[in-house]
Amino acid sequence: MSDELVWRLKERARELGFSMIGVVEARPGRRMAAYMSWLANGYQGQMGYLSRPDRLARRRDPKVILPGVKSIICVGLDYSTGAAPAGLLADPGRGRIASYAWGVDYHGVMLPRLQQLADWLEHTAGGDVASKVYVDTGAILERDHAESAGLGFTGKNTMLIAPRAGSWLFLGELLTTAVLPPDEVQPSMPGCGSCTRCLEVCPTAAFPEPYVLDARRCISYLTIELKDWIPRLLRPLMGNWVFGCDICQEICPFNRFAPGKAEDVFRPSDWEAAAPSIIELLALDEEGFARRFAASPIKRIKRHRLVRNACVAAGNWGSPAAVGPLISLLGDDYALVRGHAAWALGKIQVGDAQKALVQARAKESNETVSAELSLALAVVGGS
């Protein structure tokens, strides 16, 4: 395959809206050993699918994903919107949402475009060309391959950082059986140097060392991937984040180069979507959740986990205004919600909650929730 085809491929990718593109030979990721060490340390938490033998086989060898694969085309799509109003994000009565989720679900934007790019390549290259596309759902070390393709470098916060665009990037991959000339990565690619801002600013100390993330302590993991109880010791450290976290990206010096030119679909319909009222989140029922987040990536954690997260944010807020909604949640259908609501009431320490906590404990059948109720009562003055 000629250099001209790759040039045309990149032009087609830009026409489809991708911010950057690079091509690498389909080889195992360079950081596979580090990934296996990460798994051995248990840093994946409850994301057990990451260590499944079938998925590990795919990560080790792209040919398991697509027999005969020769090249991997890596793309990036900018989602930097520019800063939201500082007063909004600093308001503890609002639940912060990671900026990648301010607009529509990126999977629904990127996957069709990648498939269009794959269709174009199959048609243009001719012959019997096969392909497979992924947007962070496939068993592939996407940041590793993107780095090899010259899209950026891996930062100490484990994010892929493009020197001139920062780390606000969605990544995707197109695996193809077409043989494409790989990009020559410049040896002068910068790195983090002596900067440790992201490691120092993380409120939950989720980085045991540079370039290593302990997902079990990461706010993004705790609010999105964790389906169980948020550890009590970590709850006070989570602030008002209710879906994801941007702290280690916001502090990164390279993100001052972010273009702030995200497509309209990734921008919030209004700034309230970046940090909705915690009171409103606590009051969400199933219908309201489905209606409000129908096109958002937030929909995948379902209503009960978002409300769980909002309970933690309410406890950290500490306002009596949240007491009424939290008392209502003591009768929620989900134990996760009831238990985290009890914790929040204990944090706010308003005596008016005592009667509700006593009544809830008297009829609670879940042992974990009962324990949360008892601990909350010990704080607000109950027996």
Description of the structure:
The chain has 383 residues and is α+β, with helices and mostly antiparallel strands. The protein is 40% helix and 9% strand. The protein contains 17 helices and eight strands. The strands form three sheets. It has a four-stranded antiparallel β-sheet with strand order 1-2-7-4, with helices on both faces. Strands 3-8 form a two-stranded parallel ribbon. A two-stranded antiparallel sheet has the order 5-6. The radius of gyration is 23 Å and the shape is elongated. The mean pLDDT is 94.
- Whole-number radius of gyration? 23 Å
- Overall mean pLDDT score? 94
The percent range for strand residues is 5-15%
Helix percent band: 40-55%
| Ends apart, CA distance between termini | 76 Å
> Rough shape?
elongated
Question: Unreliable stretches, pLDDT < 50, 5 or more residues?
Answer: none
